Amino acid sequence: MKKCVITVVGKDTVGIIAKVCTYLAETKINILDISQTIVSGYFNMMMIVDLSGSNKNYDEVIESLDKLGTEIGVSIKCQREEIFDMMHRI
Question: Which of 20, 21, 44, 69 is the most buried (most CB within 10 A)?
Answer without folding.
Answer: 20
